[in-house]
TrEMBL record:
GO MF annotation: an example: methionyl-tRNA formyltransferase activity
Ranges of residues in domain Formyl transferase C-terminal: 204-301
A cellular component annotation (GO) from this entry: cytosol
The protein, known as: Methionyl-tRNA formyltransferase
Function noted in UniProt: Attaches a formyl group to the free amino group of methionyl-tRNA(fMet). The formyl group appears to play a dual role in the initiator identity of N-formylmethionyl-tRNA by promoting its recognition by IF2 and preventing the misappropriation of this tRNA by the elongation apparatus.
Amino-acid positions noted as binding (6S)-5,6,7,8-tetrahydrofolate in the UniProt annotation, renumbered to this chain: S110, L111, L112, P113
Occurrences of domain Formyl transferase N-terminal (ranges): 3-180
Key words, A-Z: Protein biosynthesis, Transferase
Organism: Lactobacillus hamsteri DSM 5661 = JCM 6256
Entry annotated with the keyword RNA-binding: no
NCBIfam families: fmt
């Protein structure tokens, strides 16, 4: 079976790696991002790809920066048949891409050429797309710009979050990759160039993008929090304090209140947004506390809020 250098970091990459192993491919190395400190206690945590690789007794490489590293030279000298990447998180030097015998292939979580970049799944939700998917593509020096071998689309359901889409696409990506690699080997795979006129970029999410603002409609606010769930999460500033919103729903009713006001705090916790739209908050996390259902939040906060009062800062 063909040899592969696998490169991936988050949970998205794990089904792909395990699928390659189960199919019998010779995994020469697993390259992933360095361990990092996570959470309030700053506990050193292995990447999901590293955990999977260790379970499978595969050699792991974790260069801080691949380009110019000793690890890069070792990987180049392996002259594997394929490089396969699935959300690795670093650019790959051209000399590394050129070191493989057959092809360097990427499992990308979008329907290219839409959403090139590091956050395609997040942007598909934030922008309210009806579909997303996976593209198996040839890797080139330019980011996510290579020719496409295969694509598969799925519908985005109303309850989907970035977390649920990541999980769905990881398995779809695995299966599509395993269908595609043999075709690349025997020469039956066809490559389709991307239409440059339809390119859309999805750069990494910034801190500023995490904030829900009153300029948004309820639907836009809901799309944002779905797109940023489970990481890093979206928040609004309520009476000077950060309030993370993990789950909400767009209400059926509308309001004449200005955006950012309490519409209801009895049977629900409803906030007005742009164009008279209303968002029902369902799961919240006040600063310094754990996630909680809105009912628990209101039990301790209801007396502080008055219907008609503006509590969300612009």
């Amino acid at each position: 079976m063909n040899s592969i250098i696998f490169m991936g970091t988050p949970d998205f990459s794990v089904p792909v790696l395990k699928g390659l192993v189960e199919e019998g491919y010779d995994i020469k190395a697993v390259v992933t991002q360095p361990d990092k400190k996570v959470g309030r206690k700053q506990k050193i945590t292995k990447t999901p790809a590293k955990v999977a690789a260790e379970e499978l007794n595969l050699p792991v490489y974790q260069p801080v920066k691949l380009s110019g590293s000793e690890e890069l030279n070792e990987l180049i000298d392996m002259h594997a048949d394929f490089i396969v990447t699935a959300a690795y998180g670093q650019f790959l030097p051209t000399k590394f891409l050129n070191s493989v015998k057959i092809a360097a292939v990427n499992v990308h979580g979008s329907l290219l050429p839409k959403y090139r970049g590091g956050a395609p799944i997040q942007y598909s939700l934030i922008n309210g797309d009806k579909q997303t998917g996976v593209t198996i593509m040839e890797m080139v020096k330019k980011m996510d710009a290579g020719d496409m071998y295969a694509q598969k689309a799925i519908d985005i359901e109303p309850e989907d979050t970035a977390g649920s889409i990541f999980e769905k696409l990881s398995y779809i990506g695995r299966d599509l990759l395993l269908e595609t690699l043999p075709k690349i080997v025997d020469g039956t795979a066809t490559k389709t160039p991307q239409d440059e006129s339809k390119v859309v970029f999805s750069p990494n999410i910034t801190k500023a993008q995490e904030r829900i603002t009153t300029e948004m409609t309820a639907e836009e606010a809901n799309n944002l929090l779905r797109g940023l769930n489970p990481d890093p999460g979206a928040y609004m500033m309520v009476n000077g304090k950060r309030l993370k919103v993990w789950k909400a729903e767009v209400a059926d009713d509308s309001t004449d209140l200005e955006a950012g006001c309490v519409v209801d705090n009895k049977k629900r916790f409803a906030i007005s947004f742009a164009n008279g739209t209303v968002l029902n908050l369902l799961e919240l996390q006040p600063s310094g506390k754990k996630k909680m259902p809105v009912k628990n939040f209101l039990n301790g906060q209801a007396s502080k809020f008055t219907v008609g009062e503006k509590i969300v800062e612009d």
